[in-house]
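Handout for the seminar on molecular recognition.
Each group receives one record of this type.
Step one: identify the two inputs.
Step two: read the structure output and locate the region that could contact guanosine-5'-monophosphate.
Step three: write two sentences on what you found, then compare them with the reference statements printed after the record.
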Amino acid sequence: MVIIISAPSGSGKSTLVNELIRVVPRLAFSVSYTTRKPRGAEVPGQHYHYISRPEFEQRIAAGEFLEHAEVFGNYYGTHQRYAEEAAAKGCDLLLDIDVQGGMQVMARRPDAVSIFIVAPSREVLEQRLRKRSEDAEEVIQRRLREASAEVNYASRYGYTIVNDDIKESAQNLIAIVRAERIRYQRQQDALAPILATYLQPR
Ligand code: 5GP
């Protein structure tokens, strides 16, 4: 199963994704490739694979990415390898990607589970962006503009979580993944041999 999670910056996505990974087993998190520079305490190979623009473009040309997009002036992409590794390990692939990437994956994998996370209002998002005081005013304004564009895609996602209360949102995210796994199991005919046992004559 492929799980796409998208959200405007400041919506609480990272916290929710971390909680999902902590609680739900067998999720393979895809480490994206990016041309942006590492920030703060980010660890290469753990948060992202940091590569140059020419290398990224070479990899696009070689068809290595499941999806890729330009976000805030930098390339970001999901390597095909993660999808293959997740499938080989029997894990579900978790993608934390922007809406452009989300659309590409949905087109290629119509069965993907897609979840959009949004703060309860623009005003709340602005408060949250200011509170984390990581960014300059200009960056906050850009993120707010980006958020206004990104929310237009919310209706294209299978689920929308309005992140008002972080604990409740985490529970909802976990519930979505658990329920989708049960549905997927049925689609994959994993139930057929179980149900067949009920048909055996005594
Ligand atoms: P940041 O630079 O703040 O880590 O991420 C900026 C945006 O890029 C976020 O919305 C994040 O979800 C998105 N992003 C991260 N990795 C990928 C990726 O592999 N593909 C796409 N399309 N977006 C990504």
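Reference statements: The domain at 2-199 is CATH 3.40.50.300 (Rossmann fold). Residues 166-187 form the longest helix (22 residues).
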